[in-house]
Amino acid sequence: MEQKIIQTKQIKDENDRIWTMRYWLLVHTAEGGEVFGAAIDQCAAEKIVERDEVLGLSERKEDAMLFLDRLCNGDAMPVELVALADDYMLEQEWKYQG
Description:
Layout: E1 2-12, E2 18-30, E3 33-44, E4 47-58, H1 61-73, H2 81-97
C-alpha cells in the first residue's frame, strides 16, 4: 500500500490541547485497479497517539481527494473517520444512482 501526505495541521480539541493532525491518501492495488482510501494520524510531540484508516473508500481518486478535503477543512480526528466515511460513501451512492 502506498500513502501520500495530503495535509498536516495543528488543531485544538475541546480540552484546549493542541494536536498535530496528518491526513493521508491511501492507494492500494486490487484486481480491478487502484482503490483509494484515507487515514488520519493524531500526533503529540511528533509521536502518533491515534491513527485510523478507511481502505476501500473509492475506486476514483477524485472522490477520495474530495473526502480528504472535507476532513481537512472540518478538522476531523481519527475517532470520527469511520463514521464520516460511511456518511460520505452513502452520499456518493445516492449521487451516482440519481
